[in-house]
Write a structure and sequence with these properties.
Number of strands: 19
Strand content: 15-25%
Largest sheet: 8 strands, antiparallel
CATH class of the largest domain: Alpha Beta
Number of helices: 16
Helix content: 25-40%
CATH architecture of the largest domain: 3-Layer(aba) Sandwich
CATH superfamily of the largest domain: FAD-linked oxidases, C-terminal domain
Number of domains: 3
CATH topology of the largest domain: Vanillyl-alcohol Oxidase, Chain A, domain 3
Structural class: alpha+beta
Shape: globular
Length: about 450
């Protein structure tokens, strides 16, 4: 251990290497608070690709595990430390260059999603991937999990905006994948292999991202329903006709949690709140409104006021942190084909009742990606056990409906025990062979999904 630390101290700037236990402590966790992290031997706050290369060369020499960490906002335990690891924090890697003519942003992973959006906006451009945590999550974490968000129903997810990247491999080599062109089919599209790989194949140290022109101000549709399944039917009807800029769902418990923490004038007695947005004008918004009325909405309203519309969307973004005030939360991230959304909502209701566990539901309804929030009192062993069973049953329900156990948060530690159920033995074996080819010693984020 002392030889490992001595090697790191020799290769790195003094202020990059952290071993003080009190400073190391917060780097052990992400937001998946039910995950029990290990203890790193050191944290390296890398400031450059060269420093990351040095860490990985040393880690390979000593066979030491390496866990890469961004802003720590992950929800699946993907960046949680393992015992004896070197945690590489990318928080100091914050370079950003906007090319307005090429409509690209070249960024390092420590930048926050919101910072990239703000820099693009200064040039009349837009970086669309839009996680609810966009103000606090890092681009590196977005790349590692292939993050989605509210607007991805129309504009796609993180991988759709990655033109190229620089990656440091397990042995310390730095490679550039992709480039700056929209079309590029020279060789395998390896950059997409690394997007969503959760730090198990390499450390992303730079990315070239596509930008788009700023969209017009949206028109927002607000609809309430007595039953979740009615809202789900409305979602299916909308998506059969158009692709809205956003289509988000909050059930009664989620709405009530937001109102309890930050009153916004929402009626906590409603069954379900459905929020739709169109950036093409009132005609498309009317399609959303009509589908809601036809599905039995109890209230439908439209607004072209962007401030009012953003107030409603802000309520949706606040849902997870507000529900977390009610107890410990296991945050689901399941997805199903759009026609099966009503079946998923019914299944979650049945699981909550059967397991006597509160499961508020929010989600990116337009693409079938939902976050049932399994909420419980961690001090109550029986409640904790029921919640764990409910968490697994929600994943199983999604798989039974032809869906997935994660749409955007990643596998991390929380869902590793269900990955094989979704992939099957042959695909899981192929996944492990890819992992071994790039990380033969298994030092990159060990114990996680790969």
């Amino acid at each position: 251990m002392s030889e490992l630390l001595a090697a790191l101290a020799t290769e790195l700037p003094a202020d990059s290497l952290v071993v003080d236990p009190d400073i190391v402590e917060p780097y052990r966790y992400d937001r998946a608070m039910t995950v029990r992290p290990g203890r790193p031997v050191a944290v390296v706050r890398a400031g450059s690709t060269a420093e990351v290369q040095a860490v990985l060369r040393i880690a390979t020499r000593f066979g030491a595990p390496v866990v890469t960490r961004g802003a720590g906002t992950g929800l699946s335990g993907g960046s949680a430390a393992v015992d004896g690891c070197i945690t590489v924090s990318t928080e100091r890697m914050r370079s950003l260059t906007i090319d307005p003519a090429g409509m690209t942003a070249t960024v390092q992973p420590g930048l926050l999603n919101a910072e990239v959006k703000a820099a693009a906006r200064e040039h009349g451009l837009w970086y669309p991937p839009d996680p609810s945590s966009f103000e606090i999550c890092s681009i590196g974490g977005n790349l590692a999990t292939n993050a989605g968000g509210l607007c991805c129903v129309k504009y796609g997810v993180t991988t759709d905006y990655v033109l190229g990247m620089e990656v440091v491999l397990a042995d310390g080599r730095a490679v550039r994948l992709g480039g700056r062109t929209v079309k590029d089919v020279a060789g395998y599209d390896l950059k997409r292999l690394f997007v969503g790989s959760e730090g198990t194949l390499g450390v992303i140290t730079e990315a070239t991202l596509r930008l788009r022109p700023l969209p017009p101000p949206p028109t927002t549709v607000v609809a309430t329903f007595a039953k979740v399944v009615d809202a789900a039917r409305a979602v299916a009807a909308v998506m059969a006709q158009i692709r809205p800029a956003a289509l988000e769902l909050m059930d009664r418990a989620a709405v009530a949690a937001v109102e309890q923490v930050k009153p916004m004038g929402l009626d906590p007695s409603i069954g379900v709140l459905l929020l739709g947005q169109s950036d093409t004008g009132m005609a498309e918004a009317e399609v959303i409104a009509a589908a809601c009325r036809d599905a039995g909405a109890t209230y439908v309203a439209l607004t072209g006021d962007p401030v009012e519309g953003e107030m409603f969307m802000a309520a949706r973004r606040m849902a997870i942190p507000c529900v977390e005030r009610l107890g410990t939360v296991l945050i689901e991230d399941v997805g199903v084909p759009i026609p099966r959304i009503p079946d998923l909502m019914a299944a979650v209701e049945a699981i909550a009742l059967r397991r006597d566990t509160a499961i508020p539901v929010i989600g990116h309804a337009g693409d079938g990606n939902f976050h049932p929030l399994v909420t419980f009192d961690r001090a109550d062993p029986d409640a904790t056990a029921r919640a764990g069973v409910a968490f697994d049953e929600v994943m199983d329900a999604a798989l039974a409906l032809g869906g997935t156990i994660t749409g955007e948060h990643g596998i991390g530690t929380l869902k590793v025990h269900r990955l094989g159920v979704q992939l099957g033995d042959d695909v899981l074996d192929l996944t492990r062979r890819v992992k071994h080819a790039l990380d033969p010693l298994g030092i990159l984020n060990p114990g996680k999904w790969a």
